[in-house]
Design brief:
The complex is a heterodimer of chains A (330) and B (260).
Chain A: H1 25-39, H2 41-74, E1 81-85, H3 91-102, E2 107-113, H4 115-125, H5 129-140, E3 148-153, H6 162-173, E4 178-183, H7 185-227, H8 229-237, H9 242-285, H10 297-327
Antiparallel strand pairs in A: 1-3, 1-4, 2-3
Helix pairs in contact in A: 1-2, 1-9, 2-7, 2-9, 4-5, 7-9, 7-10, 9-10
Chain B: E1 2-11, E2 23-33, E3 38-42, H1 49-56, E4 64-69, E5 72-73, H2 79-86, E6 89-92, H3 104-114, H4 119-132, H5 148-160, E7 166-170, H6 178-193, E8 197-201, E9 214-219, E10 222-224, H7 228-240, E11 251-252
Parallel strand pairs in B: 3-8, 3-9, 6-7, 7-8
Antiparallel strand pairs in B: 1-2, 1-4, 2-11, 4-5, 9-10
């Protein structure tokens, strides 16, 4: 079929400078998305900040939760137990006992502490105590401290409970070389409570993240879809497929998710940097050397990918709901 | 060939307990339009012109009856196939439905992007279409900077840029002055001469004065007899015209039956 509008005259001007990509379905959708951001710079930035803010809290929890968990385990009052040995045992026998304990599955580590080491530790604990220790030894005529083995239970889930610790300490105290086992069950219970809390907080933060991301983006997309009803309707009238009509909104969802996640990571990083000093001071007061961690590259990449996916999902849900009303029945 | 066979379209008013058959937009409409014909669709407001065009464009589904566009049974096609068929039709609206934030070029290029055409082809076709409607120099402009007539011409350029087999126009001159209406009609005649089937819904009696057309008149959703004068003239003219051959005859009643 020939229409006869090909002869003479200048071609349309804007054609020459445009890249071929912008004439593809994806290019067209991406151009629409970017154009919408460009046309409403302030509103778009505000929207991104709202999404970023709503995602920043889950990011903080995701970054800090595993570290708080580890912090608890590295504290001086850990779940480790101390087995005091019979004073008649020499260093070789003590070390042998520690080695045999290490072979058990329920024990992560067993370190022998000799009488001399124990005395040195005791003396180094407080500068003022050095003289009193020396005085005590002079009175007693010998080092009264027994050798000991510092035992750290294996960190498997079923060995975290106070009951499991009690059972293990009972087993060790039944050994003939052991006179007494010291275990801080109160701390174990506290630590387990912290672990449970942190684990729950982690799951909650992931749920909050998903819901916040879905809701914030789907609401934005819904408003965008309603704002661009004419464009959707025109595309429908011109025979555009459903995927073509949805694509700009899905891309918008992806951009919102991605940019929102990056903003959230930036906000979380700023918050952590601001909190670092005070938290370090607090940790020192508990004799801990602790520094708040920053979001890792791997975590950031994963987080951005997850939010991008959630953004696309939110967009699809919104557009499925709004577009049929715009397009009318077919 | 476009065929309507006993087509009915009812709209539910929503207050009849879900029966949904209380408002008839079209009743028992049957006709056949030959390829390459120029057709006016006339009738008062609410007669069913827009509904008929929507059915033909696949934007609505008939409540009963069958609609054929060439080999496509529009009444039975799934939505995605309807979209594909519609992309091969040219549609012009009374309110031109241009995208305000896109340039004239981008508006006209949209159907070609939808059809996944290559950049070079898009550039060439949009250039040619804009030239045909004498708007080459306005390619970079935004639609709101153009006059009503120019905007309608952009709408026409967009409708024909994909080289459709059929051009549907719903009151395309409704907002234009008589002189501009004649210009727009001239464009439609031009495309029709090139072989495009044109169906133009209008109640502008001035437009109906042109020669060589078929006329379908709707009243209260029913198709009245086509204009005898027009049909007689069509019959004579088409028998003489090699570009139309003998097939350009509008039929009313059963699709196979000729009225002329």
């Amino acid at each position: 079929m020939r229409y006869g509008f090909g002869g003479g005259g200048k071609p349309a001007k804007p054609s020459s400078g445009r890249h071929a990509f912008w004439f593809t379905h994806s290019g067209y959708a991406l151009r629409n998305t970017l154009q919408r951001f460009g046309n409403q710079k302030f509103a778009s930035l505000m929207t991104l900040f709202v999404i970023g803010l709503s995602l920043s809290l889950p990011v903080l929890v995701l970054v800090l939760a595993p570290d708080i968990n580890n912090l608890g385990r590295s504290a001086p009052q850990t779940s480790a137990m101390i087995a005091y040995l019979d004073p008649s045992l020499n260093d070789i026998q003590g070390a042998k006992l520690a080695a045999s304990l290490m072979e058990r599955d329920t024990i992560a580590s067993a370190d022998y502490v000799s009488k001399e080491e124990a005395l040195n530790l005791l003396a180094s604990g407080d500068p003022g105590s050095h003289d009193s220790v020396r005085h005590t030894i002079e009175v007693l005529g010998a080092n009264p401290l027994p050798g000991s083995v510092v035992i750290t239970p294996a960190a498997t889930a079923d060995l975290q409970s106070a009951a499991a610790h009690r059972l293990l300490s009972g087993t060790i105290s039944a050994l003939p070389q052991v006179t007494q086992v010291e275990v801080n069950l109160e701390w174990v219970e506290r630590l387990n409570a912290i672990t449970r809390f942190v684990r729950l907080a982690g799951w909650l933060s992931i749920t909050v993240l998903a819901v916040a991301c879905l809701m914030a983006i789907s609401n934005t997309i819904r408003l965008e879809a309603l704002r661009h009803t004419k464009e959707t309707r025109v595309a429908h009238l011109l025979g555009a497929s459903r995927s073509f009509r949805r694509r700009p909104f899905v891309y918008l969802g992806a951009v919102l998710g991605m940019a929102g996640a990056l903003i959230a990571c930036c906000l979380a990083t700023i918050a952590i940097l601001l909190l670092r000093g005070p938290v370090q001071g607090l940790a020192k007061s508990y004799a801990l050397d602790y520094d708040l961690p920053l979001p890792s590259v791997e975590m950031t990449v994963l987080f951005v990918m997850a939010c991008t996916f959630l953004g696309m999902l939110a967009a699809l849900i919104s557009v499925r709901q709004v577009n049929p009303r715009i397009e009318g029945s077919t | 060939m476009i065929t309507f066979d006993r087509v009915e379209k009812f709209y539910s008013s929503g207050n009849t307990g879900g029966s949904g058959r209380d408002s008839a937009a079209l009743s028992d409409v049957t006709f056949a339009l030959p390829a390459g014909s120029f057709n006016f669709l006339t009738g008062h407001s609410g007669a069913g012109k827009s509904t008929l065009l929507k059915l033909l464009a696949g934007l609505e589904r008939p409540t009963a009856g069958e609609i054929y566009f060439g080999e496509h049974a529009l009444h039975a096609l799934p939505d995605n196939k309807l979209d594909a068929v519609r992309s091969r039709m040219g549609i012009v609206f009374q309110e031109n439905q241009l995208l305000a934030d896109r340039s004239v070029f981008d508006n006209v290029a949209l159907p070609l992007i939808i059809s996944r055409m290559k950049r070079a082809e898009i550039v060439a076709r949009v250039g040619a279409a804009l030239e045909r409607v004498s708007l080459s120099q306005k390619a970079d402009e935004l639609p709101q900077t153009l006059s009503g007539g120019e905007q309608q011409r952009v709408g026409i350029a967009r409708a024909v840029v994909n080289r459709p087999r059929v051009l549907l126009a719903d009151e395309p001159t409704g907002n234009l002055d008589p002189e501009m209406s004649r210009e727009i009609l001239k464009l439609f005649r031009h495309f029709n001469t090139a072989g495009v089937t044109v169906i133009l819904a209008t109640h502008d009696l001035e437009l109906l004065k042109i020669r060589h057309h078929n006329r379908l008149t709707l009243k209260n959703g029913r198709l009245l007899a086509a204009s005898a004068m027009d049909l007689a003239r069509e019959s004579t003219q088409h028998k003489q015209s090699p570009q139309y051959g003998n097939s350009n005859q509008v039929s009313r009643g059963r699709p196979a039956r000729d009225l002329a």
